[in-house]
Specification:
- The protein is of the alpha/beta class.
- The strands form 2 sheets. The chain has a 5-stranded mixed sheet. It has a two-stranded antiparallel sheet with strand order 2-7.
- The chain is built from 4 helices and 7 strands.
- The two termini are 14 Å apart.
Length: 136
């Protein structure tokens, strides 16, 4: 699954969803995590709130989870409607630590929220004909 982190330096979760200058996107499996890319958002002058949310939603549309410091209620609703789970973590949390915890959860018995997200991802993958042969 792909996971995004709201960041301004690529190393720590230190940005609010609506103000994040970039997202570090990783591919996460039971065997580990690897950086896919740093998705920088173009600076748009005088962009309204809806525009900021739209551009960020587009940047993370292929992700299953998004780790953020904060997210507003309307943005959270729009993110979850896109089947992306926002995960709030403390300001400055190292991305590497969050990845390590996530891989450990995948290797063990994932908490209810993560199991639900994984089931939804598995179901949407099979609907698109992307059977990956793994069953939780």
């Amino acid at each position: 699954m792909k996971v995004a982190f709201a960041t301004d330096d690529g190393n720590r979760v230190n940005a609010h969803f609506g103000q994040s200058p970039m997202f570090a996107v990783y591919n996460v499996t039971k065997s580990g995590a690897s950086l896919v890319e740093l998705r920088k958002l173009p600076a748009v002058l005088n962009q309204d709130e809806a525009g900021k949310i739209d551009s960020r939603l587009d940047a993370v549309s292929d992700c299953t989870l998004i780790f953020i410091m904060q997210i507003g209620a309307s943005a959270a609703a729009r993110v979850t409607r896109r089947k992306i789970m926002p995960v709030k973590v403390p300001f400055g949390s190292p991305i590497e630590e969050q990845l390590k915890r996530l891989v450990e959860m995948l290797q063990g018995k994932p908490p209810m929220w993560l199991a639900k997200v994984l089931r939804a991802e598995e179901n949407s993958g099979s609907e698109r004909g992307e059977a990956n042969g793994t069953h939780g």
